[in-house]
Design a protein that fits this description.
The chain is an alpha+beta fold. The protein contains nine helices and 15 strands.
Amino acid sequence: ANAVYWLEKQLERPDGLWLMRNLTEGAKRAVKEVSAPLEPDLLYPLLRGRDVQRWRAQPSAWILVPQDPQQPNRAYPETRLQVDYPKTYAYLKQFEAVLRQRSGYKQILSKRENEFYGLMDINTYTFAPWKVVWANIASSLEAAVVGTHEGKPVLPQHIVTLVDCYSEDEAHYICALINSTPANATAQAYSQAGGKSFGDPHILEHIRIPRYDPANAVHGRLAALSREAHVRGGAGVAALEAEID
């Protein structure tokens, strides 16, 4: 039910609410298109698969994540959501029938919580301030670093692999290695290019990336090269990539 959770910001109102429109184009499940004012606290920048390129990642939409900030793998309690975020609750309530029909809800979420609007596979790593991201259906590993957008952590779509990091240098170090020729050669040898498992997180079980050490000069240089590649936006980076290799 992406068409419920994926949103476009239309304007920020003087009262602090954001006027949002849900994105229904190409949705697998038919959902009516509406515009509604929502509290911004549970809205986050959404990074879709098409938003990720080598050395560049830029969110193109917003996602509503009605999860409990104290326990992100659980939905925001319904009684609290009604009080804390009444506009958000009213918006979700109109889609209750659709949300209860989700396979993930019927098979898993409904058995562990009463809320009809919860999301799966959300946890503290989802809100990490820095992430290395790459599409998990691809013919090569093309990673980028993403931080915050408009003061909020960027949340990748489920088809985008993420590695959660807690410093920018660590993220750039990992990104440099993921984009390297040795890493791609290993991935090509291990997985079928273009397959669903090519860029899955478990690829890191087969590509050895040493833990980032800020005192290691080589690690620092790799981070600096990745940072420069991001500044250039992926253009004219051949010399940088050669040095990374």
